[in-house]
Amino acid sequence: MSTAFTLAKARDALKARKISSKELTQSFIAAVEQGRPLNAFVTETPEKALAMAAASDARLAKGEGGALEGLPLAIKDLFCTKGVRTTAGSRILGNFVPPYESTVTQNLWNAGAVMLGKTNMDEFAMGSSNETSAHGPVFNPWRAKNSNANLVPGGSSGGSSCAVAADLCLAATGTDTGGSIRQPAAVTGTVGLKPTYGRCSRWGIVAFASSLDQAGPMTKTVRDAAILLGSMASVDAKDSTSMDVPVPDYEKLLEGGIKGLKVGIPKEYRMDGAPPEIAALWDKGADWLKAQGAEIVEVSLPHTKYALPTYYIVAPAECSSNLARYDGVRFGHRAKSARDITDLYEKSRAEGFGAEVQRRILIGTYVLSAGYYDAYYARAQKLRTLIARDFTEAYRKCDVLLTPATPGPAFAVGDKSDDPVAMYLNDVFTVTVNLAGLPGLAVPAGLTETGLPLGLQLIGKAFDEATVLRAGLAIEQAAGFAHKPANWWRAA
To answer: Is 22 tagged catalytic?
Structure first.
């Protein structure tokens, strides 16, 4: 059986009893095995998946079942899964098996979904290329024309984006702290939605930067993103940042078109030195929306130029605080040859954390230290307020914003790993959305001359994912992006 199903088509086929969850799950288990050269999965759970599929088939036979009944998904290895190893892509959590389930994954299992396994990711979600993982890099299923060079799948949710693009799962969960759902989706030709901060519970998700992290769906189509978000989102008493806002039927709200929708084009996103094909695709996206009845207006987000430096002060500061708990004492990696408690802390953390995580902990500790707090962290927080205010002002003129998703296509593995600043620039179009807590959607919109995917980004008002998805569907339908990567890994 093919694994090229979309989530919606597989759901409908299961409900119509044209296929069984067991058959579907077995096909995906085989695909995951064949896809091992991509290194998309850290932990495979075939026995668990088949048991969940059997339970789903029993419910479907009775005419019962939830919104995701019997549908095989992949879970980013940042979500705690009860009884299944959760590493956050780090050596320091190499053998951690949570005794509890994250709220988002519990919501998925309550809806009847099936777990295929845990996907690879940048260590503690810190990275834009999935090269910082303790489990090795993930390889993008796409390759440039006439090239065998391995490309990155984006990060930090690179394992999830890779698994979706290569049809190793129907859909996957991701998390987005500065673009970690949207950037990998854009460079793998998939759809990635970062919901409003507080829309999905963060409880049971290994923390990176608590005021920025947000879970979201990574899917093959915009409709699939609407379906998956409907099950992921919920209010949660265990998460103080979870918002008690009703979760609408996102799939139903896709209908109706975009006639009369005002789409803002932020002039500050036209960056010097950006590849001309990015600007051309952006203009084409605006034309597609205009042709479907939307009104295009220019808006200004004047503090955009401060977004990256603001993000790379706030995020490392929160990371240094959140990662202080990994000390080699209570859980995780423990150094074997420590002389005393201080030596244990130092050696366990030095051995357990990779270079990028150590770099961000050091930056974060520095900007929070006495004498530098006001100079860096306090100023960054003020700038964050101004960045959020820019969006509020822009939305007086428009309903949604259209921007590029990334500054370019996927690059080769190893190309930027020695230049952290070049790597950080991959998030230039996405970090503002996290700083302002808004929803953002990446939709595949075209190919480069070398045959690699490029995406467009839609940014909406807080808790207005429905409008973002509707505009995303309009882009998707106009772009007609039906390209798939060649299955080179099956022969590897």
So the answer is: no
